Prior knowledge:
The structure is a homodimer.
Chain A: E1 2-4, H1 6-19, H2 24-39, H3 50-59, E2 69-74, E3 77-81, H4 87-105, E4 107-115, H5 122-129, E5 133-139, E6 160-166, E7 169-176, H6 183-191, E8 201-202, E9 208-209, E10 217-218, H7 224-239, E11 262-270, H8 277-292, H9 308-320, E12 322-324, H10 326-338
Parallel strand pairs in A: 3-4
Antiparallel strand pairs in A: 1-12, 2-3, 4-11, 5-6, 5-11, 6-7, 8-9, 8-10
Helix pairs in contact in A: 1-2, 2-4, 4-5
Amino acid sequence: MITISGTTVKTIIKESLLREQVDPTAAEHVAEGLVSTSLRGVNSHGIRLIHHYLAALKAGRINPKPRYKVERRLPTVAVLDADDTFGHAAGMEAARLAIEMAGEYGSGNVAVKNSTHYGAAAYFALEIAAHDMIGTSYTHADSLIIPTNSKRSFLGNNPVCFAAPVAGEGPFCLDMATSLITFNEVRRLREINGTTPEGVGADKDGKPTTNPHEITMLLPVGGHKGYGLSLMVEILCSTLTGMPFGPHISKMFVDLEKKRHLGHFVGAMSIDGFGDAGAFKLRLRQMLDELRAEPSLDPAKPVMVAGDPEKKAFAIRSQDGIPVTEQELAQFQALNTTYGIGAAL
Amino acid sequence: MITISGTTVKTIIKESLLREQVDPTAAEHVAEGLVSTSLRGVNSHGIRLIHHYLAALKAGRINPKPRYKVERRLPTVAVLDADDTFGHAAGMEAARLAIEMAGEYGSGNVAVKNSTHYGAAAYFALEIAAHDMIGTSYTHADSLIIPTNSKRSFLGNNPVCFAAPVAGEGPFCLDMATSLITFNEVRRLREINGTTPEGVGADKDGKPTTNPHEITMLLPVGGHKGYGLSLMVEILCSTLTGMPFGPHISKMFVDLEKKRHLGHFVGAMSIDGFGDAGAFKLRLRQMLDELRAEPSLDPAKPVMVAGDPEKKAFAIRSQDGIPVTEQELAQFQALNTTYGIGAAL
């Protein structure tokens, strides 16, 4: 297995962005967001995305030097105009503001408009949880999920993310898309000629199928419940901000010169505002440990809680590096050479 | 079909509570909460619960005359000690406070402790949405759902509820339990010797089964995703408040003299704080109407949005009354007689 160290790949990503005249704070957030996500084992939203971001930057979709505008009519709610910069940078600016609001007033809620792809929702919620706050993070995305009873996709695979700090370990973190499996997983099943579980995908006519080669759209997790959650996220990200919704959102991987006008939403709540944060973290640890000690149906599959697989991956990958394919390694070597970064790969 | 008018049954419920020396505001919230829920078609959380509540009141579980205590360390977060009163009354007191906070500061978040069953989560979120705010409402419940990979239940069927106002119609309202179907539905399938869908329930050993007679526990909707959402709700309702969690929560229908120590959580966000609420409501209406106009797989099943079935039920039941069984009618007649209420049944 080929691996690449988190430190090295972060240097390559950040320096590549700086060479393209990206604002240093934005470059740091993109690099840190992508690398921490890969270290947590979430390959789909990690370092592999940098090549797409660089292409979108060069094509003019992404603004390298944003001038944020904040409209804050009341102390704990605001709209951040991201000026078409990187979603990672915009989301982190929103998280920073939400944390500041929550520190002073108990809670903070920031809707982001005119943004681009922000990567993993967890990056922002985890930052908030690191401040002893409860963090939420949502983004909408282009159309992929079929509403219940419909024959075509409308909403995106909009994620719901919630994080809270725990005594003696990393935060609890639920970061879930509103489909049962991702489209990346469908692609992987195509490659191995596998089948998807029932109720996961549908063909071009909206008919459910387990053949990954026929799947062009995804079904919402839990039927109308996943559809409802996806709509909740859409309301927070586009109805609140005036951004386009569902089928009106431009596609991520086509027309790279086109602005995306994406919306996100992040929220922070001070735990100390409700009571002692230390006591909260101990109580949460106790509940999570009780859950982990529950008897499992299959001894090989212990009971876990949301975020446990990512914590395990983080422990391993921080030591051993991030697994990459030969092709992925070559792409990072190319950045290292092209920009004369000189990282030891 | 026997029906009972919403107005009549509300009178009977409220007057019964008043005769039992319940605080008038609390009695109003219990009556309004139960009747509006039945009018919205949610039979499981509607008027049928009054008989249980009256029994729990007489047994000493529920405090008829609460003295609420609010601890508010920061302007937009608070803990409301419900003094063991009716959950409907406590939840409405929390919603009132959250709305007041959100009006002044943009958002408000109230965790409730020492409460009892609060009925349908939507009652509180809809009240918030009626103030042109985005409302959220959560409660935990006693253990019923099996964590992924486990062989026994731990968390309750904790609901997630989100409501937002819409131009020209009632609010959008997602109110979803974190199982695919309710235990009431399992009971109904037992009566008709039906089978449940796959992935809904498990037997006493935690093994998944489609035989409703064998089902003693429910599986989370969407596997680990429903489990994660349920855990998120548990954190907001018990970790934040210090109330017991999951298996430590006393059962609803046994030991009626025992206090329940339940927690809830309600949140409000001012839409005007983000931009013009009127424009928001028009945008949301446009999106919902576009969804409703989507082509459906089966013409008999149009595409709907969360809350549409409840809106339909409300329109019908407000005219024709709430359907009840003969036995249910007799129970309300008994209250009418016992308490000398004199409602025309």
